[in-house]
Amino acid sequence: MAVQDLRSALEVLAKHPGQLHTTNHPIDPMGELAGVYKRVGAGATVQRPTKLGPAMMFENVKGYLGARILVGLLASRQRVGILLDCPPRELTQKFAEAVRNPLEPVFVDASQAPCQEVVHKADDADFDIRTLLPAPTNTDMDAGPYFCEAMVLGSDPDNGHTDVTIHRLCVQSKDEISIFFAPGRHIDAFRKKAEAKGESLPVSINIGVDPAAYMGTSFEAPTTPLGFDELTIGGALRGEGVHLVDCLTVNQKALARAEIVIEGEILPNVRVAEDQNTNIGHAMPEFPGYDGPANPSLPVIKVKAVTTRTNPIVQTLVGPGEEHVSLAGIPTEAAVFKICEDEFPGFVRQTYAHSSGGGKLLQIIQVEKTSEFDDGRARQAGVLALGVYSELKHVVLVDEDVDPFDSEDVLWAMTTRFQADRDLVILPGIAGHVLDPSQTPQYNPALPDKGVTAKMVYDATRPYHLKDMFTRAQFRDVDPTPWYPDYQE
Question: Whole-prediction pTM value?
Fold first, then answer.
């Protein structure tokens, strides 16, 4: 079955045992849902106990008739591979190839747009987004209800170039949503251009879409510079251009096969405190595993309409979980792999954005040395990685005999193929990520501002001239199934 949207993706997933669990047991979206999934399948940097498990569809959401919540669809690399018809270990290369061969979106009319089957306009007397859609909270300390897996689509007011990104969206009132921009986000650049003219920026917020479209959203400059439409990557991953339709109330496009589209405008010169309704001081748990601080001054999206499919699915995630690793990490590792392949073809065998870095802060790079010159080339790959993805903090280099996806194997290499006084490359005072609490002047007074950090390349590769000294013990390659029938690779 071809995947065209979220619903067809779920039909595909249902054919794979243990990958999708549906429940009718009543669930409260305020903290309870995330608390359940925290144990079942969140993984990554979530506080233990947690593990990787199936995606979960909650059919009975307290207080909301006809709306469902899906969590964890992309919270395993195996599921991403299933949904993109690609072996999990080859996703990096598939994504890099999609960047090289983007596929433009396809524009359709309203008759081909399931996202507009049901229409709610903000000027309706009973319109209230808080009762219309179940926006969950992750914890009892959240600033408010959040749409955690919502793809914002905006356009450059000067030239019309489009960008899509997943942002932190907190529901503030019946028709207002605050939006958080990390530094350098392209839609924020569009917003600033519009605001300088005293104009609103029309956007669509797209929830519940084809996983391929979601997965293209986390590429960043220089891989996808300002003006590069990341929807073209989603199209390339799927082999068909993403379908777009005109919004009904704002001058913007929306994903035609989305479950939900929120149409609105980012207002000029209007700011709100993220926790204005709770005064709790926290935002929500972010990818490093900590509660992010509530931002005191965020732009506001004025909602004009909500359009949905019949019986819509609100897709969400647990903030620090493995789903964030997939969404942010696989594009990141693909960007690093692409630049290294362009620079020295065949040298970098694999890159992996490790779960413990939330898909952003830690990358494992596997190289294959063929000469002493490659001792330096390996470290150059580490520097390239830090250059191509500014939010990356640590790079670990390993040899071709080390599995970058196996943390035990990587730690073994870090222990036996590393001396701190010669194999650690430290780069101080470089722009990083504002959501890492160690990247603050409070943590290190030498730092000039939040989001500035020291970065490192941890070279756990064997020196080429000592390669024979570091040869791993070789065992016979024996098929164990006659003795152990349940064996699986």
Answer: 0.94
